[in-house]
C-alpha cells in the first residue's frame, strides 16, 4: 500500500509486475517497521558488509546492542543527488537502502 500512496504504482496499474521493486520495498519495509529491531531488521542489518575492516568488526557489536523501536523509516527520500528507496535513521546511524530485484542499476534497464 505504501507504493500506491507514494505514487509508485500508476493509477491504471499498468506498471504492476512481479518485478516491481517499489511495491516490494513498500510491502517489506512497510511491514517490518512495526516490529522491534531485534525481531525484524536486525537480521537484515547483521548481514551487511563494509569496505573498511574496522567497521566490519564494530558493526555486529553495535547492531547487537540496539533494541526496540530505535529508528525512523522514510520511503523514497529525495535528496540533492537523487532518490533512495528507504532511509532509516536513528540518533547513532543513518542507513540508506536501494532495492534492486532482477534489474540493472537504473529502472530503465
Description:
This protein has 109 residues and is of the alpha+beta class. The chain has a domain at 2-70. The protein is 31% helix and 18% strand. It has 4 helices and 3 strands. The chain has helices spanning 2-5, 21-32, 41-45, 53-65, and strands at residues 72-79, 82-89, 94-97. The chain has a 3-stranded antiparallel beta sheet, with helices on one face. A hairpin with a 4-residue loop joins β2 and β3. The longest helix has 13 residues, at 53-65. The radius of gyration is 15 Å and the shape is globular.
Determine the number of helices (DSSP H or I, runs of at least 4 residues).
Answer: 4
Low-confidence stretches: 1-6
Distance between the termini: 25 Å
Shape: globular
**How would you sum up the major sheet?**
3 strands, antiparallel
Supply database-style keywords.
globular; 109 residues; 3 strands; disordered N terminus; alpha+beta; three-stranded antiparallel beta sheet
Short description:
This protein has 109 residues and is of the alpha+beta class.
Secondary structure elements and pairings:
Layout: H1 2-5, H2 21-32, H3 41-45, H4 53-65, E1 72-79, E2 82-89, E3 94-97
Antiparallel strand pairs: 1-2, 2-3
Amino acid at each position: 500500500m505504501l507504493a500506491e500512496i507514494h505514487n509508485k504504482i500508476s493509477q491504471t496499474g499498468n506498471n504492476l509486475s512481479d518485478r516491481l521493486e517499489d511495491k516490494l520495498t513498500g510491502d517489506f519495509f512497510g511491514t517490518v517497521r512495526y516490529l522491534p529491531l531485534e525481531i525484524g531488521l536486525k537480521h537484515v542489518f547483521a548481514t551487511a558488509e563494509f569496505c573498511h575492516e574496522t567497521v566490519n568488526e564494530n558493526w555486529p557489536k553495535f547492531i547487537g546492542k540496539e533494541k526496540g523501536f530505535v529508528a525512523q523509516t522514510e520511503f523514497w527520500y529525495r535528496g540533492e543527488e537523487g532518490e533512495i528507496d528507504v532511509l532509516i535513521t536513528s540518533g547513532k546511524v543513518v542507513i540508506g537502502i536501494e532495492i534492486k530485484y532482477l534489474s540493472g542499476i537504473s529502472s530503465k534497464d
